[in-house]
Design a protein that fits this description.
Layout (H helix, E strand, L loop, with lengths): L1 H43 L3 H24 L5 H22 L1 H28 L7
Helix pairs in contact: 1-2, 2-3, 3-4
Amino acid sequence: MTLLLSFTGIQAQSLSSLKNKATAAVQTTSVAAKAKAEQMAKDLKLTADQKTKVESFFTKQDASLAKLKTEAKVGTEAYKTKLAALTASGNTELENIIGKEKFQQYQAKLAAGTEKAKTTVDSKLKSAGLNVAK
């Protein structure tokens, strides 16, 4: 009888722990979505309505990405295919929220950030004496 109660207690603790982790993940996603929406609103001068919709979009997009990571192993063809579809549909949705001109500005800013990050990594690799593949 004691063993059964102990096992049941362990299961209850495990379920509680999982619920706490899930809640923390959702809260982290919400914080990240809010921060991204605020930065985008600042950079692109979004309206309050657009900002709210963008925050909702990022929350949904983050959840979809988290789900994808549980469905397909990162780096596999299945993952890449699903990620490309998620990205394409997300781009369409985001463009519908903020408009074509602001979406193009957003894409340009992302590209510039990606290039800056690549240059920084290349520079650090060179300073460490490592080959930089081009």
